Amino acid sequence: MRFLLMTTDDGTTRPAPPDETMMAEMGAFIEELTKSGVLLATGGLEPGGTRIAVSGGDVTVTDGPFSEAKEAVVGFALIDVRSREEAIELSKRFWKIAGDGQGVIQQVFGPEDIPG
Questions:
Q1: Which terminus of the chain is more solvent-facing, meaning fewer CB atoms within 10 Å of its CB: N or C?
Q2: What ranges does the record give for the region Disordered, renumbered to this chain (predicted)?
């Protein structure tokens, strides 16, 4: 089962800047997950981004940032694990290293998940 672990920012949390200890722990955590085949991809996202919308065949493209957004996804990790519980446990380990913040875990579905 694939899950997307996202870190979000709603402007209310001011995380501490990473120190050498945190960077070393996070590097070891990422290396462990990569070597085990659990971590498929990870990265940070640009603030704002570009929104694309289609209505009645008309396409509208709008560059961010979007002031109406209450929170934005600022980082992610795509993992492949046996269960949601395992995804939650890995996310807990991430936040123990990263410190204050918030995130969202969502299962990723693909063509292999379509019955038939």
A1: C
A2: 1-20
Q: Which helix (H) or strand (E) holds 95?
A: helix 84-98
Q: Amino acid identity, residue 111?
A: P
- SS3 of 54, please? strand
Cα-flanking dihedrals φ and ψ of residue 99, to 5°?
A: 95, -155
Q: Are 84 and 73 in contact (CB under 8 A)?
A: no
Q: Which of 81, 101, 83, 82 is nearest to 26 (CA)?
A: 101
Q: Please work out, in degrees rounded to the nearest 5, the angle formed at the alpha carbon of residue 109 by the alpha carbons of 78 and 94.
A: 25
If you search the block for the tokens 């590097």, which residue do you land on?
A: 27
For the chain, strand residue ranges (E) read 2-9, 39-44, 50-55, 58-63, 72-80, 102-108
Residues 6 or more apart whose CB falls under 8 angstroms from that of 93 comprise 29
